[in-house]
Design a protein that fits this description.
The structure is a single chain. Helix content is about 40%, strand content about 10%. It is built from 13 helices and 7 strands.
């Protein structure tokens, strides 16, 4: 049965019925819908409910063309609003690491109205409140000094901001936040490869503490993502939707950001190679971790990934260990009630 619908909207005229079917009305603004089916593990979902949800999701994606015409009709005249300060319109990208935040940065940063910061700013993450405000002011001065005439807003990506989006939108109330989520199995497998240690003593005692680190980080980030999603200035997107339904997801994304866009232009981001966090792309560089938390390797892998065309990286957990997860590790995830609740919440189905 339908247990919960998360609504992220801009504008007015939303209505929801908590029943087997969902109905809604639309106002003048854009309204986005993310629906998930909650059910008991051994109970088959109602086919009528699923049919209606699929229909509604398609309809919601299509309404984005109100703000996003077809490419030949796009008008890319830059909007006018303050470039910095409380009235500016920044874009904050965050979510659990290894969920697609870096590629989302490239896609948003490809828009002609957007200036992209090519490192994780951590502007809301470290220091006192006064120090964080000073860092934000310095960040915006960098934007002013380096932007093109068309670039009237900036985008920054910092996974560590996953629990600081409330603060970011408090000091920049006209801003928007895009948060990425991904199948927890793939996230844990990817984080496990980084060979970092968990913060909890219990996790450090695990048979494979690197696996425990991946679970710990995914669980915390997902909890904080759901908390932040209550704010209508926050949009939560699934990595799987981005790579498997790219056109529809881009319509939702840029509709939420209130920007017209040319899909071909956005997806051509890889034609202009960019560095990230001081590293240049090098597709021949080493792409595996030899030691715990090897930041240099991680940075090189990331800069290489964001200079490739968009590709489908789903299903990593199915690969042979150590790239994927062992059956024992999958069993531990399945036995974790909260982990499985998050999986169901975002529509990730376990076949076994």
């Amino acid at each position: 049965s339908l247990e919960n619908c998360i609504w992220a909207f801009a504008g007015s005229g939303a209505a929801m019925m908590r029943s087997q079917l969902v109905s809604f009305s639309m106002g003048a603004g854009l309204m986005l819908l993310y629906c998930t089916v909650f059910r008991q593990p051994d109970t088959a979902p109602n086919a009528d409910v699923l049919t209606e949800l699929h229909r509604l999701r398609a309809r919601v994606q299509n309404v984005a063309d109100v703000k996003c015409p077809e490419p030949q009709a796009v008008q890319l005249a830059a909007p006018t609003y303050p470039l910095i300060g409380k009235g500016c319109h920044p874009i904050f990208i965050t979510g659990c690491g290894h969920s697609g935040t870096s590629i989302m940065l490239r896609l948003v940063g490809q828009h002609p109205h957007v200036f992209m910061f090519t490192d994780e700013t951590n502007v809301f993450y470290r220091g006192t409140t006064k120090e964080r405000r000073e860092k934000l002011a310095a960040l915006e001065q960098t934007f002013l000094q380096n932007r093109t005439t068309e670039q009237v807003r900036y985008v920054e990506k910092t996974p560590a901001h996953v629990d600081r989006i409330g603060e970011a939108l408090q000091v920049r109330p006209m801003g928007k936040a895009v948060m990425l989520t991904r199948d927890g199995r793939d996230v844990v497998a990817s984080l496990k490869a980084r060979k970092k240690m968990p913060s909890s003593e219990e996790g450090k005692k695990e048979k494979d503490p690197h696996f425990a680190y991946g679970v710990e980080r995914y669980m915390y980030a997902t909890m904080k993502t759901l908390e932040a999603a209550e704010d209508p200035r926050v949009l939560v997107l699934r990595y799987e939707d981005l790579v498997q339904n790219t056109s529809g997801t881009l319509k939702v994304l840029f509709g939420f950001l209130e920007e017209n866009f040319d899909e071909d232009q956005i997806l051509s981001y890889h034609r202009k190679q960019v560095g990230y966090e001081g590293r240049a792309p090098d597709q021949n560089a080493k792409a595996s971790y030899d030691k715990q938390g090897d930041l240099r390797v991680h940075q090189q892998i990331r800069v290489n990934q964001i200079n490739k065309p968009l590709y489908d990286g789903t299903g990593r957990y199915k690969k042979d260990p150590p790239v994927g997860l062992t059956q024992e590790e999958l069993g531990k995830l399945k036995a974790n009630e909260k982990f499985m609740e998050y999986q169901r919440h975002f529509g990730y189905v376990w076949d076994d």
